[in-house]
């Protein structure tokens, strides 16, 4: 169909360091493509209007709600999802902190929270409590587990700066 | 969302000609956080045939300062403005307005031009098509505004424009009005006081359909000069303002020589408090004069049944914002 030719495009998306070709329609959001076409269902979709943060991914190290950006515009960018955090069976320090500090209750918000946390710690390795609260202001936790989540972010920051010091 | 054609523009000129030559309705996309929300809910009578991407145009995402003042490219994100040391030092009202907008995630994608061009958040206007069909309110060509007889607790306290009582939800708009900014577009230069004009459908500004904001110029502070911004919302993050206020004042010998105060979230367009401004000229800024200015700001308020609480709230926020301006 001629109309389809106009509206779909073959793009190259770099997800967790791996480049892959994808045939996308112009109106597909990144969260839809990640979940439906790439199998990265760790990126959750809840409100689908940018208000809950459960679809947060890093795009070029910036925490972004994946439901509010178009996949077609992400060519050439480095997309990082929750699936890209653990390496060779080893959890990322933020994930470890999440386990140790009981950052997850039902766990639905955790991927988004963890990606927002990574975005924060890239910009600010040693955030204050207020800075943590502000940075996670776009992520909702329906279990209201915020105290534990903030503890987990603090612990993750300590773990990561210790790791940095050991390198 | 339904399908549309997506075109990357290489230059501002190309973007304008793409808008003009499109066979059906065409819209531009910058951050997209407002546009995609409108498209997902299928708000408009005409669904766009084409979306023109501005993010591929080089040079629109820089902040610079020269003798004229602060030049903010249309695509500068709210995060970048909120974190800019220059903006925080000389235009703290604008930095705070950007910092208080939406959530950190949305600020990472949302742009300053998008923030001042955004649509209203009236829940009747924004009612999603997928849940029982869109609501054709007066703004969408219907006969009446559903908020007037319905739930209008967050709506205008200064009357209607074209029978619509939605409010302008922008946080940076009042800050830019207080700072007397100028909007540069592909066609002209618009003083910020003439920029906002709520109309029918998606129209919230005086921009033409084929006109694109390219830069915002905020003039340089005079010698003795202060500015501030405050916002009241249910939650610190994410929520739109119930009311917000920005003020910018110049002083000489301890007395106010000029004042610009703007409330938002109270009317279809951001509302300059001209009576309050006039009352401050020639007087020192203190609790008594700020109180008087606050009272004058809401003297003409005409609240509806459910939104009377916004009147004392607007008065208080004017007083508090002015007190933030005391050196």
How would you explain this protein's 3D organization?
The complex is a heterodimer of chains A (167) and B (327). Chain A is an alpha+beta fold. Chain A has helices at residues 2-7, 30-37, 93-100, 110-123, 129-135, 146-166; strands at 8-15, 18-25, 56-59, 62-65, 78-80. A 5-stranded mixed beta sheet of chain A has the order 2-1-5-3-4, with helices on both faces. Chain B is an alpha+beta fold and 327 residues long. Chain B is 28% helix and 20% strand. The model of chain B has no long low-confidence stretch (mean pLDDT 96). Chains A and B meet through strand 4 of A and helix 2 and helix 6 of B.
Top-tier CATH class of the largest domain in chain A:
Alpha Beta
SS content category of chain B: alpha+beta
Oligomer: heterodimer
SSE order of chain B: EHEHEEEHHHHHHEEEEEEEHHH
Helix content of chain B: 25-40%
> Beta-strand level of the residues of chain B, as a percent range?
15-25%
How far apart the termini of chain B lie comes to 50 Å
Unreliable residue runs of chain B: none
Given as residue ranges, the uncertain stretches of chain A (5+ residues, pLDDT < 50) are 1-5
The number of helical segments of chain B is 11
The count of β-strands of chain A is 5
Could you give the order of the helices and strands of chain A? HEEHEEEHHHH
CATH topology of the largest domain in chain A: Ubiquitin-like (UB roll)
Average pLDDT confidence of chain A is: 95
